[in-house]
Amino acid sequence: MTAVVRIEKLTKEYRLESVTVRALRSVSLTVEQGEFVALMGPSGSGKSTLLNQLGCLDRPTNGRYILANEDVSRIDDDRLSEIRSKYLGFIFQSYNLLPQYTVVENIEVPLLYQGCRLNEKTRLRCVQLAQLVGLGDRLDHRPMQLSGGQQQRVAIARSLVNDPHVILADEPTGNLDSRTSDEIMQMLMKLNDAGKTIIMVTHENDIAAWAKRIIRMRDGQIESDEQNVRAEIRHEMSGAFSASLSSLLAEAIR
Ligand SMILES: Nc1ncnc2c1ncn2[C@@H]1O[C@H](COP(=O)(O)OP(=O)(O)OP(=O)(O)O)[C@@H](O)[C@H]1O
Ligand SMILES: [Mg+2]
């Protein structure tokens, strides 16, 4: 197994006037390629702070972060955003789609950030990704014309467009009802079966139950870290979806 994510004694402090909040206190964690991790813990325990660190969205106060063999804790901003768009995909609770853009255009957004020129090939990939997440008949819809579950599926397709090593999801089902949440989790499970590493924050036990590994945080530290054997069984039962995703992402688009 290869470690895709490795953090060593990571500390994050927020200074607000005279008060210092120690949001992460010397956290060490390794995630191997192909893992599906749920990050749990009470409000304020540091889950989003950790996810933001893993997503290179913020810098640590101390400690090291090695992403795909590169030490990203000290590199400059340009290289950091390059790494972010190359290795990472993001899914948020509130979907974060651009309202004026269509489904396909929203899926294209990370390519634009990467400085990629849009052409027929990129368009085809985005259409295929939309089809893969079941939105083939909604290509020209805008976010307002979609349900919450559909919007989150656009976000999933968008997170895949760069063929990332790791998908980071902060409460991806937080705004969805339980049936729609299950559909989204099925999709994340299939992505994981297709080889994508997933690290997901959730408050809900039902949602964490889909993950193969459950990490609980408390007061900025990891309190427990356990394999979830029952999720493995569920994964073994899931069918083939990987083949279409792999072939779809196989060809370089740049
Ligand atoms: N930008 C910030 N400035 C100052 N303090 C912050 C900032 N972001 C987070 N914190 C503090 O860091 C701690 C951890 O916050 P974090 O958002 O990581 O918690 P969380 O586990 O994601 O909680 P929730 O479940 O409510 O989303 C909290 O005490 C919070 O108040
Ligand atoms: Mg949070």
Q: How are the secondary structure elements laid out?
A:
Blueprint: E1 3-16, E2 19-32, E3 36-40, H1 47-54, E4 62-67, E5 70-71, H2 77-87, E6 88-92, H3 103-113, H4 120-132, H5 148-160, E7 166-170, H6 178-193, E8 197-201, H7 205-208, E9 213-218, E10 221-227, H8 229-237, H9 242-250
Parallel strand pairs: 3-8, 3-9, 6-7, 7-8
Antiparallel strand pairs: 1-2, 1-4, 4-5, 9-10
Helix pairs in contact: 3-4, 3-5, 4-5, 4-9, 5-6
How would you describe what is shown here?
With 254 residues, the protein is α/β, with parallel strands linked by helices. The chain has a single domain, classed as Rossmann fold. The protein has 9 helices and 10 strands. The chain has helices at residues 47-54, 77-87, 103-113, 120-132, 148-160, 178-193, 205-208, 229-237, 242-250, and strands at 3-16, 19-32, 36-40, 62-67, 70-71, 88-92, 166-170, 197-201, 213-218, 221-227. The strands form 2 sheets. It has a 6-stranded mixed beta sheet with strand order 6-7-8-3-9-10, with helices on both faces. Strands 2-1-4-5 form a 4-stranded antiparallel beta sheet, covered by helices on one side. A hairpin with a 2-residue loop joins strand 1 (3-16) and strand 2. It is globular. The relative contact order is 0.18. Adenosine-5'-triphosphate binds next to strand 1, strand 2 and helix 1.
